[in-house]
Amino acid sequence: MPDNVDVGGQSTVPVVTVADSRALVRLNRPREHNRLEPADLDVLRETFGRVDADPAIRVLVLTGTGRSFSSGYHISVIADRLAGKGGVDEDRDGFERMVDRLEALRVPTIAALNGSVYGGATDLALACDFRIGVEGMRLVMPAARLGIVYYASGIRRYVTRLGVGAAKKLFLTAEPIDADEMLRIGYLDEIVAPEDLMARAEALAATLVGNAPLAVAGLKRAINETAASALDLEELAAIRALCSASDDHAEGVRAWAEKRAPLFTGR
Fold this sequence. Notes:
There is one protein chain. With about 270 residues, the protein is α/β, with parallel strands linked by helices. About 45% of the residues lie in helices and about 15% in strands. A six-stranded mixed beta sheet has the order 1-2-3-5-7-10, sandwiched between helices. It has a four-stranded mixed beta sheet with strand order 4-6-8-9. The relative contact order is 0.11.
């Protein structure tokens, strides 16, 4: 996986790299602390669709360029909307739908948080299955300070992943928390030195890639649906039957008995 570097200091839409069963998505507006703009949402949605359609991709890593992971959605877009300047074709729920799409991805996802995270970007990272942060980072959810009531799926992710108490503290106080507190409340799975971030993300990605893709996708979906109190038992039974009859299940059993690493094909 490439190191986390500033790509010439340029500010562009996210950079997407696919190699070795991994998709790497790098937010790439370092001069604006990787602020998310409407054009970025289009690239991210297209990328998520591409990942879901390609069985060769088994994990997605999301990171940023420069000192911050992301400063969130561009405030001027929201301000223009409030002032009645939004275009007639503006997708007002586009950010929420993009984040929901990330949460629902078939493959496991890792947020490699190279720096502080703000606003809507906090929910973007929460939609990932794993979050690795760096020493010295902070999180701020400024909704109450901006007079905003957050969208439904974002509130659900905060409450189900972090708990009611942590969600209330972050939303209602709009005060920053540091990396240690992010780890304590479960926002981060681990904290590493900045220079170790991408190596740690790669190690976790390798572990995930090494497991049976059908089972990983089925387990992820069932866990997410259970967290949202929306588990479809009939669909779960169908997924369990599919996995039990798969070549990967037979390979996993053989490899376990033979004390070797399994070689899964996703079939």
